[in-house]
Amino acid sequence: MDFIYTILRNLRAALTGLSLRLKPAERALFRDFRIEDLEIRRARREDIPVLERFLTSGDFMKHRKRIEGQAGGEGDYLIAWHTIPAAHIYIIWNGSSEGPLGEREENEPLIEDFHVHPAARGKGIGGALLKEAESLVREKGYERVGVSVIVTNPPVEKMYKRAGFKDSGLGAFKSSRIFTGRDGVHREWSKRVKYLVKDLR
């Protein structure tokens, strides 16, 4: 099955000329952006091609995996839209079991891979999407939500702390996974992370 997906990805890339570079036309889409024009909704299977076009970094298969996980009740994959997909955030309802988190009896939902398109940054889109995710967590009856941040990326940690997250006190631990690149090659991602938590009450 992975072999078939690799063929399809390569064919799509050849036909559409996918590029990771930020194009002037993409910048122009957000030049006159108004936050009230933003639409936030769960990802759908038919969104996969455009998500792969505009919001793929790291694991090229992540959109497909998350939509499948959403269908199975594992999580919810929220996308912020403004003509193109501007940002994504995945909520894993059972949380993480990595490192010290695996020793706890119960974990809060985990925010994973919160990403904003480069052309859409600094316009309040990320903040709006994070608030929507937190609202969904509350609706599900949870009182806290967590996120793992790479210890060597202080700006991201600072951003979450401005949004009300606090250090869990669990210390740094290793987070790792295998992902598939745009070229179809499997690679390992491994980083030291710390776990932050936000009280939603």
Description:
The chain has 201 residues and is an alpha+beta fold. It has a single domain (21-199), classed as Aminopeptidase. It has helices spanning 2-16, 24-29, 48-54, 62-71, 125-139, 154-162, and strands at 39-42, 75-82, 84-92, 110-116, 144-150, 166-167, 173-180, 186-199.
Name the features.
8 strands, disordered N terminus, eight-stranded mixed beta sheet, 29% strand, 6 helices, Aminopeptidase, globular
Structural class: alpha+beta
Distance between the termini: 44 Å
The level of helicity is 25-40%
CATH class: Alpha Beta
Mean pLDDT across all amino acids: 86
Q: Which spans of ≥5 residues are poorly predicted at pLDDT below 50? A: 1-20
**DSSP E strands, number:** 8
Let me know the largest β-sheet.
Answer: 8 strands, mixed
Total individual domains: 1
Please report which band the strand proportion falls in: under 5%, 5-15%, 15-25%, 25-35%, 35-45% or over 45%.
Answer: 25-35%
Order of helices and strands: HHEHHEEEHEHEEE
> How many individual helices?
6
CATH topology: Aminopeptidase
Anisotropy-based shape: globular
**Alpha carbon gyration radius:** 17 Å
Summarize the structure.
The chain has 201 residues and is an alpha+beta fold. It has helices at 2-16, 24-29, 48-54, 62-71, 125-139, 154-162, and strands at residues 39-42, 75-82, 84-92, 110-116, 144-150, 166-167, 173-180, 186-199. It has a single domain (21-199), classed as Gcn5-related N-acetyltransferase (GNAT) (Aminopeptidase).
